[in-house]
Each structure stands twice: as structure tokens, then as C-alpha cells.
Amino acid sequence: MAFEVAPFPEFSWSQSRRSTFRECPRRYFWQYYGSHNGWLDESPEEARLAWRLKKITNLHMALGNVVHEIAAGAVQRARGGGAAPTPARLVEAGRTRLNRIWVQSQRREEWERAPNRIPMLMEFYRGTGPGRDLIERIRDRLYACLRNLPLTESFREAIEAPQVEVKEIDRLDFVGVEGVKLYAQPDLLYRVGDAWRIVDWKTGARGEGHAPQLRTYAVYLRERTDLPRGPVIGRLEYLESGESLTVPITDRDIADERGRILASVENMREYLANPARNEPKPRDAFPLAEDTRHCPRCNFFELCEDELAMRGETGPF
Question: Which residues form the domain of 71?
Fold first, then answer.
């Protein structure tokens, strides 16, 4: 079947989409609408630029992706009968992947031609690369996360559990909620007895927004018709520190989060000129963030820079 170019993207919901919408509607516009079809040569330059900017990452995000990829592979290999991963092997795999991203990010011309295939670190896109202090912090976090990974209770349980699902980095599953695609697949999903464990690997410090994320994953689990129901327990594995946080999730928690998701969907749809086609209102209908101090760190800053300057909201402070 031939690929069909659609004038507007398909509407869906995810935690990252909700977070972006809350933090900055303008960034939300660029991320989900302004960059649409930016991979096509015949698209407007603004859309093509937005699509390239959308693909840029940074060292903190690259670290998270690498650790998640290695965690998924390690669980799958161990369950497949492979040797239990040693911390040294996991660390070496992480170093190799981060070094590859580092090298490829310096191929600016290749990235501009194929931003969906060549990684680009923001530190190279806007400068000469990460400073020594940042490199050392990322290296220390990488080593700590991967050394602690096989020691976590979730890793040990998942290897022995009878039913396990591992999130694949390059593929996201979804469920339908009131006709909307909900992308909210947990990093690790398995059963112990009749209870489900939902696991979220974390490479940074504890955050207040982490526990509510588990309730979104529980909605994903509950909406699936191919899995038996049972009690749900969430677990946040803070790999850098080796700590974990267990969060029981009740039926009321799941129902309340489902309601919050649907309310979020309605809020997003208020910015649509034609909800049936997911056609957005004009760009200017999506306001800039109220607090513009963080704008220079946004992927799409150069698309908003002139407007911010006209408002007198750029500068060192």
C-alpha cells in the first residue's frame, strides 16, 4: 500500500504530549503540528526546519534513551536463556552507544539531510559540544545506572515472572480510550501471582510527577482487553541512586486518571480549527510559555526568537 501524505497528523494522547501542552502551547504546536510533513522536500521551509529541530536531543535525554534500550535488551536476553548481564558489560555497552551518538552528532551536513537517521546533540547543534563538567556528570550517571540495573528488584522479578512485556524503544503500543489513541506503554510490565507490576526506569533524581505517571500506565493496562485483570502495583526504579519507590494503584486511582486524560484531550481540542481533521488553529493561537526564561533551552527557540525579542523577553537574565 502506497504511503499517503495527510495534510494533518492523527490526533493521539501521551504523557509527553500532556506535559508539553501544559508547559508551552507554542512548543506543543511545533512538536505536533508545525513540524508535520517536514520530512517532505516540497513542504515549507518552516515545517522542514521544525521537523529537524524536533529530532535534536541532548546528553541528558541521550543517557535516558541508552539506559532504557540496554535495560530492555538485558531483560529480554536473560529471559531468553542468555547469560545474566554483568555490570561491566552493561557499562561498556552504554559507553559504546553514547560515544557513537557523540561522533555522529558532529556530522552536521549528514544530519541535515537525514535527521531521522543521524543523531544530533543540542550541545553540538548550538555550540562546539558538551563541556568537560557535563561529560563527567553524564559518565558518572551512566556507570551508576547500569551497575545498579541488574541489582533492582524489578529486574530480578521480571527475569523469573511467567508473563512479561518489555517496552521497545522504536515501537510504541497504544490503546483506545473514548476513540482516542493513548500511548502510555510502561518500560516493564509483568505479573507476580495475580498482581501486575508496572515499572518505570528513572535515570535521574526523584520527582513529584513520577508517581502520577504510573497511574497513566495503569490506565493503559486496564484498557487492554487481552490481559486478565488483577491488582496493580507501580514501581519507580531510580537507577542512579539504587533506590526504588513502590506505589499501589487502586481502581479509584485508575478511574480518576482516566478522567484527567479525557479532560486533557478536551483542552487540546480547544486549539483545533477542525477537530474531525485534527486541523490546528493558526500558530499565533498557541501562546508562548508564561515563563520564557527557559525558552533558550527549547528545541524550537530559533522559531520563536524574533517574537520573543520583539516582546523584550530575551537576554541573559
Answer: 13-151
